[in-house]
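User: Reviewer 2 asked us to show a designed sequence for the structure in our supplementary figure. I'm pasting the structure tokens here. Could you produce the per-position amino acids so we can include them in the response letter?
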């Protein structure tokens, strides 16, 4: 039996291999015939891909470079020997006009006098430059910073609010007046609400007198943006103070100078000052 089994085993192995070969070759032949039957113009299906590309443009880059250039030009910094223009209009450290010079001549003057070169008016034709010392450059930078701090920034005017009672003490009123003045000097508007004291007999115009006292502590600085008016059914009085405009400040100074020069106006100075502020 064992001998018969060993004889049949190779035969079965060969039959299995032939069957596998037959299946593989049959599949390959069918696929080849199917491809051969396709028309020659048929194309294999492809997936469409959308590629988002940024359009080529130098407009944004030019704007960014221009902004950086303008910022550097306003920094009042030493440009050293990097003079991009061939001919420039030069001024010395005293402000004297040296006329149009070649950049090689400018560099020679810088070395001889131990000076720095800064841009004065780069938009001119030819652009204007100036020779300065290191101390002069430092002073100009400080002056520019002070000018930027003094320039009011554009934006909505903020309003501060302050509420207190009409029976406030003198010391507390002085403290609040100083706080209001600090806000006014920072260009804030200040809304003041004075509540009438309960269970106390006081003049009807006491709240208005308190507001006028606060305003009189800031001559030439503040005025009413909204005059005192009763609110909450007459239980309180509210007003808004603001900083004087440039025109009002000029009018106030002119009034003060007139009063100092005219002895007759000194007697009526308080009335005139009240008219300017109110």
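Assistant: Here is a per-position design you can include in the supplement:
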């Amino acid at each position: 039996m064992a001998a018969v089994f060993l004889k049949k085993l190779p035969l079965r192995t060969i039959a299995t291999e032939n069957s596998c070969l037959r299946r593989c070759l049959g599949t390959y032949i069918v696929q080849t015939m199917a491809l051969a039957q396709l028309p020659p113009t048929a194309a294999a299906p492809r997936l469409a891909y959308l590629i988002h590309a940024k359009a080529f443009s130098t407009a944004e880059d030019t704007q960014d470079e221009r902004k950086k250039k303008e910022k550097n030009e306003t920094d009042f910094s030493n440009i050293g020997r990097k003079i991009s223009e061939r001919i420039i209009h030069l001024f010395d450290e005293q402000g004297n006009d040296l006329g149009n010079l070649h950049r090689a001549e400018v560099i020679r003057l810088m070395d001889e006098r131990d000076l720095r070169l800064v841009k004065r008016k780069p938009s001119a034709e030819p652009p204007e430059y100036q020779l300065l010392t290191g101390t002069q450059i430092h002073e100009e930078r400080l002056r520019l910073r002070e000018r930027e701090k003094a320039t009011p920034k554009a934006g909505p005017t903020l309003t501060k609010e302050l509420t207190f009672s009409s029976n406030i003490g003198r010391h507390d009123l002085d403290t609040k007046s100083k706080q209001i003045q600090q806000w006014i000097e920072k260009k804030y508007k200040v809304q003041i609400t004075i509540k009438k004291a309960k269970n106390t007999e006081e003049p009807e115009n006491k709240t208005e007198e308190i507001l006028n006292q606060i305003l009189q502590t800031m001559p030439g600085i503040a005025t009413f943006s909204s005059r005192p008016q009763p609110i909450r059914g007459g239980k309180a009085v509210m007003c808004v103070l603001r900083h004087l405009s440039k025109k009002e400040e000029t009018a106030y100074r002119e009034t003060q100078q007139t009063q100092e020069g005219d002895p007759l106006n000194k007697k009526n100075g308080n009335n005139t000052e009240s008219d300017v502020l109110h």
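For the response letter, you might also mention the following. The domain at 159-252 is CATH 3.30.110.10 (Translation Initiation Factor IF3). The chain has nine helices and eight strands.
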